[in-house]
Amino acid sequence: MRYIILFLSIILLFTACQKTETPPPASAEAKRYTLKGKVIAVDKAKKKATIEHEEIKGYMPRMTMDFPIRADWIWEDLKPGAEISNADLVVDETAKEPYWLENIALVLAPDPNLPAPPVDERFAQIGKEIPEFTLTNQDGKRISTKDYKGKAWALTFIYARCPLPEFCIKMSTNFSDAALQVMNSDLKDNIRLLSISFDPANDTPEKLRSYGQGYLGKDAKPDFSVWQLAVGNDKEVRVIADFFGLDYRIDENDKTQINHNLRTAVISPEGKVTKIFGGGDWTANDLLAELKMTSQAK
Fold first, then answer.
1. Integer angstrom CA distances of residue 178 from 173, 209, 284
2. What percent of the chain has pLDDT over 70?
3. Helices (H) and strands (E) in the chain, counts
4. Are residues 141 and 94 in the same domain?
5. Do 45 and 102 belong to one domain?
6. Which end of the chain, C or N, has fewer beta carbons within 10 A?
7. Would you tell me how many other CB atoms lie within 10 Å of the CB of residue 244?
8. Coil/strand/helix, residue 63
């Protein structure tokens, strides 16, 4: 009997190893194409998504088809209705699986049925110096308030899975729009933007990079020189959030969602608060106007 048990254990171990086997990287002969489209359906078990994609220049016309996706992190966020603003379609005829998607920039689908969280009207004092902090950015590098000394900058708070169009989605749209304007102007050396995630359990640097890339709408190597996205542990982020009156907490009815208010602040080159937007009733141009004034007052 013990031989049978041992034999079965070996089979189970072998099967487990097979299931966790990492697919080999693309060969030197592999070709890459840019894909953009909308997610129609998701099969997490098979790690495939049905995508209605635009024309893939040089490869195939517009159509809807299934695509394998190897990245593990994406399956919590990949849902029907999400937009893929940019992805690499890897075609490798030498591989067991001849094509798959990599480097996916995802814009999550908003859920209009979710209620807006309550508004907290606390404000940090205008003119007060912000506390020093250190976080990890979308490239996995540690950044701190010292990196922004001498520049006018703004910060806001988001989490990548937020489905509310008037909350994180709007904050990230405004920040990415402002960043693109700054990058194409003579202000690119004087103005910076920072989005801070308050969801460290899910918002890894890799995920934040993909999230930001989705909003910038650029190629596979977006420019994060003006706008950065960063995350820290809960203790690190709470200190910053408390200073600005940001309130966030896990939704008891849906653990994947975080109820929160909105805070966006403009910081002077000396590190002092010059303006706070307490809600979402502002535009990228409103933010840039404040940043220009702060920069000129330097």
1. 8, 17, 5
2. 86
3. 5, 14
4. no
5. yes
6. N
7. 22
8. strand
* Element spanning 120, H or E: none
Number of domains present in the structure of the chain: 2
pLDDT at 256: 83
HEC readout, 207-246: HHHHHHHHHHCCCCCCCCCCEEEEECCHHHHHHHHHHHCC
- pLDDT > 90? residue 122: no
Residue 225 shares a structural domain with residue 82: no
**What residues make up the domain containing 40?**
31-106
Check whether residue 223 and residue 286 sit in a common domain: yes
Same domain as 189, residue 79: no
Token pair of 149, please?
A: 């000394």
Residue 273 confidence (pLDDT) above 60: yes
Of the three residues 61, 90, 106, the one that is the final residue of a domain is: 106
Statement: residue 202 has pLDDT above 50: yes
pTM of the model: 0.66
CB 123 within 8 A of CB 278: yes
